[in-house]
């Protein structure tokens, strides 16, 4: 049921990144469920993690290890989230790092562990540790599409991004208009909701060979995630394991970008933003039971917070989501959701709402020009933008979401029945 | 599909209250859709209304009229919410009051209008006004069950409450242990979500002949609603028309209760609370597609706000709601929802979760004593209490909710298709 999502076949390898994959049999036999990223010495790694108070053991370990020395390996298992597993879960996550450290000759704190799958069951450590040598034995730079499949749980399609971008060189403190450096950006993500009994959930790994200073990379990773992964919602259920990693191996031939004042910064940010956007939107497109990919846009807000409050309230409204599924351009439900978003002193008569470019609500009531046929035509499309204009300021924010379909209920309710 | 909801057949009339009903044909011909409450002179009326910023025209008029002189009539139509109707909606709500005032000889501001039904369509004023004389012509004190049906929209069952209660008399400043006054409490409510295209939504009218001073009645109405109607949630979608009215006609033979210091106050509050609880829970029991009636209880919270934040986050989680529908005792989903409720410095290891009296999560992980069979047995019941113990304080709060079923999606998505 994925909406407008195609499988990426050709990935550009990223200098300084090799990937090893194994079938460890963590939940099912005969499927790739263990993925190791090997990063060249000198790679810079940034990450943002779930804000769920009960973040999983591997998330806690990864956050701690990120504050220490250079990261050299990421180890990712599917089939088990190692969340809600108490002290045993912490010691299992650490033991995974220690075993991989022994096999590779780095320190345990140079390794970041990630898990996704069932919550509350102990990691099958014997199987997981036995898979590590196999994954290391087949490290390669051209196996991205296998890795994208290797981190899936119940995603219906693998999710990937790969581009090469020309970044202008520097000429003193300015852009050199003639010469460019070629950099590569490749990444994969997984997630389709907190799907299946206890599945948890969103993982993303974006890599580039660009040379970006670590402090700047940290800032960029946060800002990029805020515009992409932190703006998508399927069911509003933040999982215990969400992680998004941005890796710059610094292997490209280019001068380092170390501050936002660098004239190349904007181009670098935009190139990475495209990767973040596509990989985060891919998760929505493959959302549980999704039949619609919806851009919820709030314009003319007085602040970013109120724009997001309105956008999320509408995006999470079960009544709006079921109307989307029904292709029913039900503006009363949208308006009622805007009204309960908690924004102070909002004036109904200032509100306009557009479906793509069709005005459906003007000054708080049905637009005179609106026809049911025009609304139905928009809502029949698989991709829709709902624009809500508050008439309070000049801030615009967007979030991306799906509809609520019978299939969503089936996926989440019928699985164990 | 209503869960544990029976139709009340016998209502006690309330001294000072007469009800008139008409078939005005507002949306459908041949059904009762116009209800008038006539209140004896000297009745005290309090109300709480939707916090939706875009409250409907009749809500705005009722709030304004409540600040003025004694209320003598309530006029309620179904089939049209008169919401999202702009200046025309305001003038229609006022015109309804004016016409009824002319017919009854009271002032227009002594009338409170209420509407429920489709959002965004103009009130059919000719039909509505034509229905007023009919409704007035058949005013009677014993037609509560007809009134309960007359305010329904797509509720599957009418919702009512009626009890007579002995309230001790006063002996100076103390309770007279021998003599009591008999008072009556009767009420009706409607609502089952913001159901059908644009339906809006929850209405409740609770009346008593008890003699309660208006300032105290205002305080009691707010406190009672906070414990009942403000603690139920089906889909989290606060409508534009929610109204809950508490009416004391002061016709009973008893000394007035005018402060919380009155020794009879506790008994009076508890008697009304039972009515508020039963009428608000009836709305959940008749919730859209409901197969479960769930008490979401948060214990050991440090504050009321954090208890409610956790309770509502879990109650609104689509993953928890679909698990309830599936009779799947999925504690990982509950735990993950608790973790994203935004409570600061929550410690996973302090969390216990009970299903009725079965401990499923102990110290943040699966309880050693828990078995799938025990959990499945609880979840197979139509009524369940989920208790979440935070280990942070001694505050307990409860909210009441339903599951998320295929039927919910059908009701909200398939209607116009």
Molecular structure report:
2 copies of one chain form a homodimer. Helices cover 31% and strands 26% of the residues of chain A. In chain A, the strands form 3 sheets. A 6-stranded mixed β-sheet of chain A has the order 13-12-11-14-10-15. A 5-stranded mixed β-sheet of chain A has the order 3-9-8-7-6, sandwiched between helices. In chain A, strands 1-2-4-5 form a 4-stranded mixed β-sheet, sandwiched between helices. Chain A is globular, with a radius of gyration of 22 Å. Chain A has helices at 57-66, 86-104, 125-137, 144-150, 214-227, 265-285, 304-316, 318-325, 331-339, 372-379, 406-414; strands at residues 17-22, 34-39, 44-49, 73-80, 111-118, 159-171, 174-190, 203-208, 243-248, 293-301, 352-355, 358-362, 365-366, 383-389, 395-401. Chain A has 2 domains: 17-285, 4-Layer Sandwich (L-amino peptidase D-ALA esterase/amidase), CATH 3.60.70.12; 293-401, ArgJ beta chain, C-terminal domain (Ubiquitin-like (UB roll), Roll). With 417 residues, chain A is of the alpha+beta class. At the A-B interface, helix 8, helix 9, strand 13 and helix 11 of A face helix 8, helix 9, strand 14 and helix 11 of B.
